[in-house]
Amino acid sequence: LGLALYAGSLCTASSAASLYHDYCIIGAGPSGLQAAYFLQQAGRDYVVFERSHAPGSFFALYPRHRKLISINKRYTGKSNGEFNLRHDWNSLLSHDRRLLFQRYSLDFFPHADAMVRYLEDFASLLKLRVRYNTAIVHVTLERDGQAWNGHYFFLTDQDRQNYKCSSLLVATGTWVPNVVNFPGSEYVEGYETVSINPEDFAGQTVLILGRGNSAFETAENILGVTNFIHMVSRSRVRLSWATHYVGDLRAINNGLLDTYQLKSLDGLLEGDLEDLAIVKDKKGKLHITLRFYLENRNTSAGIDSVTLPQDELDNFATRAPYDRVIRCLGWKFDFSIYNRSLRMMPGKGNKKKYPQIKPSYESRGTRGLFVLGTASHSVDFRKSAGGFIHGFRYTTRAVHRLLENRHHGVPWPSTVYPITQLTNSIIKRVNEASGLYQMFSVLADIILLRENATAFEYLEEYPVGVLAELEMQTGRKAPNGLFVVIMEYGRNFSGADKDVFYYNRAVGEAQHAWQSNFLHPVIYYYKHLPTEREMRLQPPDWPLPRPDAVHHIVEDFLTDWTAPNAHILPLRRFLENCLSTDLRNFFAESCFLFAFTRQKLPPFCQQGYVRMQGLVGSEGLQRHAVEAGLLEDYALTDFPGDRPPDSRKGSQDQLLRDHVIPVRPLQHLVNAKDE
User: What family does this chain come from, according to its entry (predicted)?
Assistant: First the structure.
């Protein structure tokens, strides 16, 4: 009753003394600062609330052993900044070159303190508006027809100061430890508090609950000083190189797999943690038993009165007592501060640690409430990198673009090109775009075709989960069909049980591109924008509905899709088939001949030669084209009697000098031929 009255009093007082901002961001971690940067660049009214005295407080404590598993690759052999972000998993997006993470650490796997310094500088150098030491303890909403979304959000901090916002961006991450309660769980130490000094474990026998990177990180730290380490979890170990999911076990932490498989005492077990029970004996040793053995028994009665599994099965795997049991089960989202009016509900199944959100990152229960960063990972959980900095820096930018269109009438950024640049535009993006590369199967480039396929509009890194809403979400129209450019792994290549090192794992020939296993570009063609129903009925494990046509660019060992025959030519022919047009480039002489011999000129000739654009010819250029087999040497086909031999070269030079052909006479000749 007291809590209800307190919440009611907050709602009553909220409208009386509330500080207003268009956008409120809860949390000054990486995703909160990234959102603040984009809002500040757009000149919007926003504020960031951070409960600690500095940004990135999560990284001040975690990971406990202070080594990040996000790579910091300082050298790629290229100077293209967009390409280099593919291999920089720590930097946030900004215009300031000083804020590249490689300037803060030389290590491939950086120390966590470097991330803390980086986030502090990101906030201070860019002068982001962050209110530190401000813990938001309660969030509710109040209906108002004048508000952007039909309601305002009211936030209350620890000092009972109220804030009023039109849009709420939640960037708190997942920081509440996952805890499993079972008989004897009071004897378990948490990852968040356990000692990180290996000497504290010297000569001890340790059981670790969990099988993620935090569990293996803890094991790696004490591997050399313990008697042995056992690790138990309900699921089998998943290796990131097999699943292609960076949240699974990384090689930097998997030393215990060696000692397990090479029979050096350590081991892994599978079992439901809720079925376990721990009993402590008089010497302080911890014995593992099963919950059903303790039914109707008092665990404090002593070890002698408790039935242990080894009493019935003398080779029970965990029959040896343990000195310590450590819980390393990860984290979950904090739902406690959100009033029921916001309808912030946990997900289902293995996504229950995240709030339910749409593919647009907007809450399913409340319009105008967006979830950013790690907490938004339910959109691509175990599929892509949306739960990590190198993924959510792009999804945060996508959310900002959605908000710009919705609230400020600023359409999604796009560029219009003539259709002759279609192949080049795709090849450029798939070879350098970092957002497509990191958020594979989630973010895609959208190519909107103009009428008669004479031009196209290029939109970058749009969330494919809301493709059916593209016109509403972006302010762009798609009446004439579209291409979707996305990156994918092979359909059956990723999985905990997959052998990703088998002999014929890679495809090298363009005709087998659809069988590519490694990350590669895929282009979907739709004659019409897919509907909501088509999105719901898309094939399992497909990022998009079934298209009218689809093209795979064959995987490449160097992730360099610029080979003329293997990559560019098949792509161009696919595009030509979809558009029923010729996307080749031509010399002016070829366009001149086409004008007399074809009813329809190729787009390159229409948009270049006929409009008096293109390269200026020269004798050297023509000679090079003839020698390369690109042009015929028409001078050799002239009839000897038509003119003196010495005049041929002069007439060629005259033709090259007079490279501009007037449009009206040329069209007159074409029409005369047609008649």
Answer: Belongs to the FOXRED2 family.
